[in-house]
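hey so u asked for the seq, here:
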Amino acid sequence: MMAYLKRFGPIALVVAGLALALSLGLHRYLSFEYLAEQRGVLLTLVREQPWLVAGAFCGIYVLATATSLPGAIWLTIGGGFLFGPFLGTALSAGSATIGATLLFLAAQTALGDTLRARAGGLVARFEQGFRENAFSNLLVLRLLPVAPFWGVNLAAAALRVPLRTFVASTAIGILPGGFVYALLGNGLGAAIDTGQAPELSLLSRPEILAPLFGLAFLAFLPTLARLVRRKPAPAATPVEGPGA
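ran it, structure tokens below
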């Protein structure tokens, strides 16, 4: 019994936390409307109790990330709105990394072998190559908005990525995108004044996406170099002698 609790207890808590949050409608608070409605109250609290608000913000962000609560992007925007782009990015990135790590550990403990078994030989074929450059590969996935954040956490757990590699690649990889959304949040007051919600597809704009692709390419270079080194050399063509 204790073995089952140790294995499935963490992921059960994650699922229960998500179910509870959704049943209580907590995800509705992660919205432009809520920030606009509570603008004055939130800014007053930040001025009067900055450390308390920062601690509460981080705790909420960790829980939202660990349970993959929908709408968590508004926490990053809210961080920039409440604390400015730099502190907001730091608090958001740190909290998101902790929350992602909790989900990663829970999935690795309870579902790692199950996910691998269901995927069959697919995971086995990719695992070795992925883990040889796990940091670079995860960094690319974090930099580019091509996969769900929670999906990357589960995939890393299934591929048995080392914890230290997972934490480092997550903490670094989410900084650029997080800073963009924190900057968006820093100017949220003007959007609230006009009553128009900011455009959340910001990361898909060419002027934002191009630098992210550049960073992702640099992150992918170690993997690319390894693939090039592994490419078999072409077979030498036999040289015929003069009497042939």
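The mean pLDDT is 80. The chain has one domain: 2-229.
lmk if thats what u needed
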